[in-house]
Amino acid sequence: MHFDDALSIVTAIRTREVSCREVLDAHLRRIEETNPAVNAIVTLTAERALTEAAKADDRLAAGEQVGPLHGIPMAHKDLVATAGIRTTYGSPIFADHVPVQDDLIIQRLRAAGAITVGKTNTPELGLGSHTFNPVFGATRNPYDLGKSAGGSSGGAAAALAAGMIPLADGSDTGGSLRNPASFCNVVGLRPSPGRVPSWPDKAPWSPLSTKGPMARTVADTALLLSVLAGEDTRSPTSLAGTGAEFTEPLDRELRGLRVAWTPDFGGLVPVEPAVIDALLPATKVFEDLGATVEQACPDLSGADEVFRTRRAWQLELAYGSLLDQHRERMKPDAVWNIEQGRALTGPDLGRAETRQAAIHQGVHEFFETYDVLLAPVSQVVPFDVDLVYPRSVAGVEMTDYLGWMAACSMITVTGCPALSVPAAFTPDGLPVGLQLIGPHRQDRKLLEIGYAFEQAGPITTRPRCAV
């Protein structure tokens, strides 16, 4: 049962083929079997979950109306506040922190009937796309325990891949939903900014960071998005409407679809040959489905500078006071990036704003010609878990921890929805994901295209992990 998709589990619960307690027991056994090796779930709330599962069964027995995720076990990213459950942000400063209020997405998940089994691991303060921290250590890739699971939603991706949970929430600034999905052979969607509102939020007008869904299939990802999405007036950028549009079947004909493929974003991003070699057959899948595929890319010149500027500003806003009080307890990359934010000037921010506006316009015009852009998710295959970050990519030196994430972080700047879907394995058996980028706010269309690829793709999206 622990590798069944969430939609099947929901149906089985509603038709009384299985109880919520039985579903939970199966996943708790799987966590007990695999988590010691993978280190994906760092705070386990088994007793609380058992109580919630019993109540969920009672509600069904009483004939009460239940939510779309009724009885589904979930573990939440350790960057997201969960009332009454330890939330550390991967930092020793918050090692014993227990919030008194749920973040908005947790409120929505609980209202939908999800059962919390714990928290998933994340890098310290969520910084970086490799999940390790001084509180819990590193999360290991279920396909090769010597490799990274990616990040910052690495614990979530690894837990999904290992069958510990059927759905997971995550967040994405520079690739934190997409990179770990690629590394762990699962699905991760960075929604359009505002699709999943965030509250509370120190930078509510910023489009840089967003929360979003992860799952083992595209259909399950859409199911979770249907719960997470929807307007909330406390979030000034939240998009109007509900998540209802994501509950309908995703079947779509791809004949006539106009597809662009870029292996290196017009030469702006170094990508390891092993990644490109693995993804080339995936582009052929679209041709086999009747789409036309051309090598093309919008002009993303300056996107890396925009991302770095906006990220540094946002980090200083979020953690500047923490640096003043606890500098010695923060990792060097965090200190460096916050200080980058403090060094910014008004003209620096102005240039970033102007350049991002130009990129937005260029991307809008690009998608008047193409329906979807295909690209690598990550510039490297899963690397040694003991590395802080890859020091070089395709022979190009990475001078800091952000460089190897550019294939995702540059797309963040466009404001487009982006989906990571399992696409291939290297000859060594390491997963490689394909990044699908859609037009602004066309999340539903992007999921439909991803679903068609998944159904016809060269590999199964079901885990074949080593644990």
Structural summary, described in words:
The protein is α+β, with helices and mostly antiparallel strands and 467 residues long. The protein has a single domain (6-456), classed as Amidase signature (AS) domain (Amidase signature (AS) enzymes), CATH 3.90.1300.10. It is built from 13 helices and 17 strands. The chain has helices at residues 6-14, 20-38, 46-61, 104-111, 154-161, 178-184, 218-228, 273-288, 303-326, 332-342, 346-366, 406-414, 443-456; strands at residues 41-44, 73-77, 115-120, 132-133, 137-138, 140-141, 144-148, 167-172, 187-190, 210-215, 258-261, 292-295, 372-376, 392-393, 396-397, 418-425, 431-437. An eleven-stranded mixed beta sheet has the order 1-3-2-8-10-9-16-17-13-11-12, with helices on both faces. The chain is globular, with a radius of gyration of 21 Å. The model has no long low-confidence stretch (mean pLDDT 97).
The general outline is: globular
Strand content: 15-25%
User: Taking strands numbered 1, 2, ... along the chain, how are they ordered across the largest sheet?
Assistant: 1-3-2-8-10-9-16-17-13-11-12
Number of distinct helices? 13
How much helix, percentage-wise, in residues? 25-40%
Give the radius of gyration: 21 Å
Through-space gap between termini? 16 Å
Question: SS-based structural class?
Answer: alpha+beta
Q: Give the ordered list of helices and strands.
A: HHEHEHEEEEEHEHEEHEHEHHHEEEHEEH
Residue stretches low in confidence (pLDDT < 50, at least 5 long) are none
Number of β-strand runs: 17
Largest sheet report: 11 strands, mixed
Please tell me the total number of domains: 1
CATH classification, class level:
Alpha Beta
CATH superfamily: Amidase signature (AS) domain
The quaternary organization reads as: single chain
